Amino acid sequence: MNPNTKTIILLSVLTFILVVLGFFISGWTGALIFLTFSLFIDIISYWFSDKIALYSAKAKEIYEQEAHDIFADLKELSAKFSIPTPKLYISPSQQANAFATGRDLGHSTICLTEGILKQLNRDQIRAVMAHELSHIRSHDVLIGTVAALLSSSIASIAQFGGLLNSEEEENNPIVSLLLIIFAPIAALLLQLAISRQREFSADNASARITGRPRDLADALLNIESSAENFPMSVNPGFASLYVINPLHLKGVMGLFSTHPSTEERVRRLYALQA
User: Fold this and answer.
1) Which of 145, 157, 200, 266 could serve as a FRET partner for 34 with CA atoms 20 to 30 Å apart?
2) How distant, in Å, are the alpha carbons of 61, 74, 78, 84, 97 from that of 64?
3) Are 157 and 111 in contact (CB under 8 A)?
4) Strands 98-104 and 60-62
């Protein structure tokens, strides 16, 4: 399915769910309020989700004269993928990690953390950038970024719904239960719109383009270790964007991670090396 079509479906489903929830909370008034909120979020998500993701990471754009080697690799890899060279941003996080965002090939960005520049060697960073360029070429960064923004926004909407419910003369216990259950499930379903298979596909594309699958395998192991040693303050909704989940989801929550296990990704990459 075309990524733009998937994005439209995702936004439409979210709008419908929120309108229904608004109706249960406060009748047609609640439905109208939630419809307005939902349409506002839909517009923001499509046009500005990439900027919000970069703002959330406190990232700043850097230019070729500031990082010659990285830009040289980025231009070469972009040419191999036959896509325009994306903008490059640097996040101040000391955790080694990276993500791609943007709504189309002409409006795409790769964000690297300061940690990845310090902790990984040039070949490993090159492999990670190839992984992110594969996401850009596959046009899945739009739905990934939109889903990330929506999953982080929906909790706020549910909280607002709780305020509406509390203003009633008598709180509706069914509505309260819906809010408790619906908010996290809806957010998780939005994140599950991002297929885990896309990470394997991007890993394979990186290995094919660079011809060095072990570089990406080693990079993934180093990034996972860095994620354990350098906690990152990141909105959970945007965690799905990163090459390795910067947060540690344990217990039942771990079942909803949008990332396949690093162990399995590394195993497949080592198999390609052989």
Assistant:
1) 145
2) 10, 10, 15, 15, 20
3) no
4) unpaired
Q: How much is the pLDDT for 241?
A: 86
Of 61, 114, 132, 169, the catalytic one is 132
Paired tokens of 51: 């900027």
pLDDT score for 147: 72
Determine the pLDDT at residue 58. Answer: 93
Which residues does 184 contact at the CB level (< 8 Å), separation at least 6? 155
Max Cα separation, the chain?
68
Sorted by sequence, the CB contacts under 8 Å of residue 33 that are 6+ apart come out as: 22, 26, 164
List of E strands, the chain: 60-62, 87-91, 98-104, 107-113
Residue 56 CA: distances (Å) to CA of 59, 118, 148: 8, 21, 11
Q: Is 93 within 8 Å of 60 (Cβ atoms)?
A: no
Residues of the chain with pLDDT under 50: 163-164, 167-169, 251-256
Paired residues of 197 in beta bridges: none
Q: What is the pLDDT of residue 126?
A: 98
Report the predicted TM-score, pTM, of the whole model to 2 decimal places.
0.80
Tell me the CA distances in angstroms from 229 to 89, 119, 232, one per residue in order.
Answer: 23, 12, 10
**The pLDDT value given to residue 84:** 96
Predicted local distance difference test score (pLDDT) of residue 263: 94
Catalytic residue check, 132? yes
Question: Which residues, including other chains, have CB under 8 Å from residue 193's CB and lie 6 or more apart?
Answer: 6, 10, 143, 147
